[in-house]
Design a protein that fits this description.
Elements: E1 2-10, E2 14-17, E3 20-29, E4 36-42, E5 57-70, E6 76-89
Antiparallel strand pairs: 1-3, 1-5, 2-3, 3-4, 5-6
Length: 122
């Protein structure tokens, strides 16, 4: 599965135990009703986030996880997690990235006879 949108937040590395670390990423989707989705990167995948910054448009590959837990009172609880395993920067295409051709790239013909050498049959 994939989640794409703009990065809203990137946490620093969090050392949860001597052998487990994680990093959290929040991506705000670009849809009619935007969602802020928290995605966990764990262990060696934490370093994937080093080259990204808030505002970057990204495509994040995720796995959904779920687990059951019974509390001391005997009540069963369920937890979900969203785990990132790859992140790619999206190239934004739109009006803000379109460049207008420079004026010198348009050549105007001074001599009309120059344009009369067209070999096309129509």
């Amino acid at each position: 599965m994939k989640v794409n949108g703009k990065i809203k937040f990137i946490s620093p590395d969090m050392q949860i135990s001597a052998t487990f670390k994680k990093r959290e990423l929040v991506v705000t989707t670009d849809e009619q009703y935007p969602q802020s989705i928290m995605i966990e990167f764990t262990q060696d995948k934490c370093e994937y986030l080093d080259t990204f910054k808030i505002g970057d448009s990204v495509d994040v590959s995720i796995n959904l996880g779920g687990r059951e837990w019974v509390n001391p009172q005997g009540e069963t609880k369920y937890f979900n997690s969203i785990k990132g395993w790859r992140i790619e920067k999206l190239v934004v295409s739109g009006p803000e990235q379109q460049q207008t051709p420079k004026e010198e790239s348009f050549k105007t013909s001074v001599n009309k006879a120059e344009d009369d050498h067209d070999d096309l049959p129509f």
